[in-house]
Structures are given as C-alpha cells and as structure tokens.
Amino acid sequence: MAQIKVNDLTFCYEGSYDNVFEHVNLQIDSDWRCGLIGRNGKGKTTFLKLLTGAYEYSGSITGAMECVYFPYTLSGEARPSRRDMHYGVLEEGTLLGDEYLREEIRNLENVPVWTTMDLLEELSPGYELWRVCRELEQLSVDPEVLSRDFYTLSGGEQTKILLALLFSGENRFLLIDEPTNHLDMEGREKTAAYLRKKKGFLLVSHDKWFLDQCVDHVLVFERQTITVMQGNFTSWQEQKAKRDAHAQAENERLKKDISHLREAARQAEGWSNAVEKTKLGTRIGGLRPDRGFIGHKAAKMMKRAKNTQHRMEKAVQEKEGLLNNLDTTEELKLFPLTYHKERLIKADGLSLFYGERPVCQNVSFELENGRQLALKGGNGCGKSSILKKILGEEIESKGELFTASGLVISYVPQDVSGLSGGLLDYARERGLAEHLFLALLRKLDFPRVQFEKDMSCYSEGQKKKAALAASLLTRAHVYIWDEPLNYIDIFSRMQLAELIRTYRPAMLLVEHDRSFLAEIGAEQVEIPLRK
Hints:
Layout: E1 3-11, E2 21-29, E3 33-38, H1 44-52, E4 58-62, E5 66-70, H2 99-106, H3 116-123, H4 129-138, H5 155-167, E6 172-177, H6 185-196, E7 201-204, H7 208-214, E8 217-221, E9 226-230, H8 233-277, H9 291-322, E10 343-354, E11 357-368, E12 372-376, H10 383-390, E13 396-403, E14 409-412, H11 423-429, H12 434-443, H13 460-473, E15 478-482, H14 490-503, E16 506-510, H15 514-520, E17 523-526
Parallel strand pairs: 3-7, 3-8, 5-6, 6-7, 12-16, 12-17, 14-15, 15-16
Antiparallel strand pairs: 1-2, 1-4, 8-9, 10-11, 10-13
Helix pairs in contact: 4-5, 6-7, 8-9, 12-13, 14-15
C-alpha cells in the first residue's frame, strides 16, 4: 500500500497576497476511497491540482503513484473552441455538458465534430478500448455510445464515459472533482454504486448522500485545521457535532477566564496605585510617612503588577485565539411576498416542443403559497425548459400553463458561468441594497478579499453564491431555482435548507441532491418519459 505524503505545503497564487495553504502536513493511503470536503474557496480544486504538479509550491508532495485529475482538459493545440467543435469542451478546455449549448450546436450548420472514440484518443493516447467498455458496463452504459458523436450525448452520458476512461488506467491515484454536477438522481445512484466498488481516489463532492454511498475516509478543510479520518460524511458530521458542542462549552469557559484575567489585571494595577498614593498621606500618630520606603514598596508592587498584567494579557490573547476553533454557520433570512390567492402556477397536460421535436409531454402540477415543488426526471427530459416557459420564454406548447397575474418571480439559472463585472454593479443592476448583499455573501462564507475582484475571476461556486444571494434578497412570490446547488459547498447547502424550512417560500426548483430535497420537504413532480 503506497502513500501520498504532504509535508509543510505552502501555496499562494501569483499576484495574490494571501496564502491558500500554509504549512500543511497530511498523508493519504493510495487504496482509500476518500472524500474531500470544504467550503467554497477553501482550495479543494487547488489542492487536487497541486497533487498533479500543476503549480509550483513550497514544501513537498511525495508518492509512488501518478495523480490524474478529472474532469479532463484538452491541450491548447488540440482544444476545439466552444462553438466550432462540440458542446462538451468549454473555451478553457474543461469537458462539461450544458443543455443550452447542445441545442445551440444542433442548430449550427457544417459543424465539425469528433466522434467519442476520437476524443478519448486525444485525451488518453493509447487507451485500451476493451478496458473502457468494461468500465462502461459497470456504469450500466451501453458501449454503443462510443460510436456516437460526443456532442450528441447527454451530460450524464459524457460524465460516465469520461469516468470509464479515467478508471481504465492502472497504477494511478485519481482526483475526481465534482462529478455529479451533470448527473440526475438515477445517474448519481449508478455512479455511487460504481465508485463504491473502486479504490484509490480522492473525490470532491457537495452531495452528502453521494459521499455517504461511496467513500470510506474523509479529508476535511475546516475553518482553521485539516482533518483526516475514517468514515463517510455522516460519521464525520456526527463527530463534528460532538466537537462543536465541546468547543462551545470550552468557548464559554474561555470567555469567563478572559473576563476574570482582565479583572485581576485591573485589580493588580489598582493596588499599586493605592500604595503609591499613601506617600502623599497625612501624619500617622504624629509621624510623617516614610515616602522613600512607600515609594520603593509601591514601585515593587507596580513592577509585580505590570508583570502580572503582561502575563494575563498574554493569557487573554492565547485564550481569545482558541475561540476561533469553533466552525459555525450563520442563519440566513428571507422575506418572501405573499400572494393574495393560493394558486400561483398550474400546469395541466403541458407539452413543450422545439420545432417538431417534443421536449416534454403531459406534465401536470400545481404550486400554491408555502409549497416547494421539485421537478424530477432524467437529463434532457425538459425540466429546465418548463421553468423557462413559466418565465415567459417563447417555447411552443400544448396543454394548459397558468401563471397568476402580477406574480413576482426570483430566478436562479442553471448556468452562471458568464457572470462578469463588479460585484456591487451586479447588485445595483438588480436593485439590491449593497450592504445587505455583501453581508449575505459573508454569511455564505464568501471571502471579503473577493469583493473587489471582477466576477469573471470567481470560481463557479462563488458565482452561484452571488446569484443565490441576489435571489434571496429579491422579495418575490415564487422562487424558481434551476439546479441551484451545482458547485455549492455542503455547509452552504445546509444553510439554504434551514432557510427554506424556516420561511417556507413558494418554490419551484430543479435539483438532484436528494438529501437537500428531503431536508426542505419538497414535493417531487415526476416528468413523464417522452413517447
């Protein structure tokens, strides 16, 4: 059994003044199924890239095995552009699936595309086809898909094919970065079952259920420390709850100790001052006070008091530093509007079409005040199209779609990758109070250092948090969120679930995180399969 050892790792991006990692020490066994957990911006993807040797750093990372990062990227020479090749390759070179871009490419004429097998050869020259086919069968995917053009495949099919390629190699430690973002519930179930039979990987995921199904160790980037322990997310969370309860009790004790130390320091200083004043006192029994003796005695007391005060101040500082060990999440608030009638949105036998191609058929549901509905179905079944139709997009339809008059809707789109410009400009454009917007982002653990940066420099998780914060600050009758949790860390998901449980806004959402849907008590609307 080999080990990957990280010793005294320190890393900072060029041009930045704050370190992402400082003096990190840890080790990972190469046969673990390890989950990597942490807030957005804690450096999870950066850590994976450091393991591959993508960046220069101080310290050392040693291990006998090659580390391979997923999702794959194409080299600059071979990389197709977003528009000219196929939808599965974004301009920065990361393979990814997006429904809107797939539809855009379908409408292009004379688009040169790669077959899936050509793409696999480009990504992993000399790969063995039989090994990929073996992995695909374990993922319940027909190897026939390899003969199709990559851009025609769903995001879930693309992810599974690339995972099959990843696991078809040997003697490698695999770094898997958020593979569930383009998988529906069924796809997540099959992928979790697949990973549960494997070993030798470090998995970043924000889906609690998914992590519980397929990892046997966790590596957690906490507030001040990095924790490595055996178990899954739930076992770590249970341990964390116990540690947090102990830390909370310890914090209360520390606060009392700090108060007592400060009071003792004030008393010590007061005593020395009181003795010093006796030099100027009146006669005692007809005798003048010995000012020299009293002054000497006061000076000794003052020196002792100052030393005591310095020791106490140092103790106060040390104990105040310990208060930072408790990692908590702040409560979010929501102020939804209440519509004067119960029925907000109703679909009855709704079918949508792009040209003659049916997107979804015979969909029925009714959204009322205080209810949360989640559209459920496989990739490409038309969930996002239903949301867009409700928002007023021109999509050909049959059946009934009722939207209450004067309904105010707050919308979070599935794709926010195009966000750019200043954060405050983004808030002003949406009529949001700037100080409330920034305060809400801080509650979502958004680093202050990011406030001054252009949004195009944000991670996908930070962009999605900005969109969610804008939605939460918008007073609306209905909140329509399309896969709002993609790239959002587990702790922020827990905050959002608590918010929805508390305020019960009317919501219509598309989301594949079953733990989140269960926590908010969402009713699921099954989208029928197209005939």
